[in-house]
Amino acid sequence: MDALFLPLANAVGASVDQIKLISCLLIAYPLGSLFVRIPATKPALRHLYSISVALLFFFPVLKLYSAFFQLLASILATYYIAKFDKSAKMPWVVFVIVMGHLTVNHVIRAIYGFSYETMEVTGPQMVLTMKLTTFAWNVYDGRRKEEDLDKWQLSKRITKYPSLLEFLGYSFYFPGILVGPYLDYPEYMELINETMFQHAHVKATLKAGRRLPPGRKRAAYSKMFMGLVYLGAFVVFGGKYNYAVSLKDDFVKMSLLKRIAIFQLSGPIERAKYYAIWTLTEGASILTGLGFTDLGPHGTPHWNGAANVKVWTIEFPPNFKVLLDSWNMKTNVWLRECVYKRVTPKGKKPGNMSSMITFFTSAFWHGIASGYYLTFLMGGFITAAARQARANFRPLLVPPIADPHAPVPPPTLAKRVYDLLGIILSAMILNYAASPFILLSATDSMLTWQRLGWYGHIIVLGGLVFFYAGGTRFFRGLQKKRGVLPPPRGAKPAGAANGNGTASVMSSGYGTPVSEKNFVLPPSVDKIIPPR
Fold first, then answer.
1. 289, 216 Cβ separation under 8 angstroms
2. Could you say which DSSP state residue 63 is in?
3. Is 295 helix (H, G, I), strand (E, B) or coil?
4. 413-433 and 256-287 are packed helices; what angle lies between their axes, rounded to 10 degrees?
5. Are 43 and 193 contacting, i.e. CB atoms less than 8 angstroms apart?
6. The pTM is what?
7. pLDDT value at position 513?
8. Rounded to 5 degrees, what are φ and ψ at 240?
9. Which residue from 42, 95, 156, 358 has the fewest beta carbons nearer than 10 Å?
10. What angle separates helix 370-397 from helix 352-366, to the nearest 10 degrees?
């Protein structure tokens, strides 16, 4: 079957594996339309259909025979361990087995030097690892007392153990089996049974003879169109604008400013390949009915629940935290719910140890390439500098709103300049810090940073030196004079969250709830040693 893909691969300068992967993502669109035509009253048929399509992908198209059976082994191990091990250690047993298996394959990938152009087991296995470990925790939560669970755990707990067919259908959900999106088992069963469309306010929007809310096809094919646009951008411009240009001798001959400028063009093109595959697979998932979140204020159905990335927010981020929250969003949910919360002792507040364990889990999940760790460690310093900048500058530009019903005043010129600088600096720091993630080698990454004049380190570490050397003290004094000083860390501001969980209008918003934290990066230095 490779002969079918070889002419196109040669025409666009891509590997056959890449063309086959994109083909599978596109084939999932018409197959997704067929999936929704299977009545929800025949769930077994839907499970079998999903498994059959996954088999089509792995065997005749991708020829990943060994990969399929490796995934199947992890699936069956998880299914029977979670079924028969009723102890509190069960989720950790599953976690060690599937993460250990993934790590072994990451090592094998590194030994053989497979590039991102080679399709092998680790891509699908990364997605499956999230699904299997989440399933184990959902089953464990189903065996616990309801009063011991938080809101997410209560909504996702599994009290009725699935049949093997149901579990295989979940594990091999075909739009997401290769590159995501990750979904949990209760979400999958809602999709199979179409329970999310049975609410009265949703059914009221359905046309005669229709089972699904309108807008699904429009949302799905819009994603397909945008995915192809991102893919086209990568194919057309990727050869000229990529992080590897920094390793060429011609790059050194340019002026430093030109090198930095070219690197800003390379970043979006490098990320375009991720935007492409995640957006394409999101659209295929929407066609099967996944991603429906509810009706909007005007009764418009929203189909954004399968999104894994917010492209516009990443490329034009108001600050670095918002940027991180918009990248690989499903992985952040998994790290939060299945690692960060789980390693924290009951009754205690998550601390730096919980953050470090979560960070190393994220790092090993991504792989063992040294470049990953340079990016992640750099990210810890970036988040510290960004947090300090926000805490010191923003209160002077945006005072707390005492009356939520009062009209919001227009932003001042200083606030507009602050926002513009935030976008520019966030994008520049992202392109600098993310380069090792693509280059993979620490040696190549350090050489790249050197040829860029270490501008990212100068901005980030220079900012931290400024704040620690007295900048924070100066700006806090200025905030105090103007009456906009936020409450101390850990203290509740006046009228803060009360007993029924409602937040005060005077809340400063500088504390980050667990549900909004990013868990891909290590704890930032200002969390360990706060500036005075």
1. yes
2. -
3. strand
4. 90
5. yes
6. 0.90
7. 42
8. -100, -40
9. 42
10. 130
Spot the catalytic one: 106, 366, 405, 457. Answer: 366
Residues (pLDDT < 70) of the chain are 399-404, 488-528
Predicted pLDDT of residue 431: 96
Neighbours of 405 (CB within 10 A): 6
pLDDT of 519 reads 60
Inter-helix orientation angle 216-237/256-287, to 10° = 150
Which two structure tokens, joined as six digits, stand for 326? Answer: 């918009």
Q: Catalytic residue at 366?
A: yes
Q: Give residue 504's pLDDT.
A: 37
Q: Do 472 and 390 meet the contact criterion of CB atoms below 8 Å apart?
A: no
Which backbone phi and psi does 361 adopt, to 5 degrees? -65, -45
Q: In degrees rounded to 5, what are phi and psi of residue 244?
A: -70, -15
Give the pLDDT score at 127: 97
DSSP string, 454-473: THHHHHHHHHHHHIIIIIHH
How confident is the model at residue 496, as a pLDDT? 44
Alpha carbon 411 to its chain's center: 31
The reported pLDDT for the residue numbered 263 is 95
Spatial CB neighbours of 105, under 8 Å, sequence gap ≥ 6: 70, 120, 121, 122, 125
Q: How far is CA 351 from the centre of its chain?
A: 22
Write out the two tokens for 319. Answer: 């600050």
Which residues, 6 or more positions from 237, have their beta carbon under 8 angstroms from its beta carbon? 269
> What is each CA distance from 225 to 29, 220, 408, in whole angstroms?
12, 9, 37
- Find where tokens 């999903």 sit: 50
Q: Which helix (H) or strand (E) holds 445?
A: helix 442-451
DSSP 163: P
User: Which residue's entry shows tokens 């050869």?
Assistant: 239
CA distances from 352 to 334, 344, 406, 488, 524 (A): 18, 10, 39, 19, 9
What are residue 247's phi and psi, to 5 degrees?
Answer: -90, -5
In angstroms, the CA 402 to CA 309 distance is 34
Distance from C-alpha of 107 to C-alpha of 439, rounded to nearest angstrom: 17
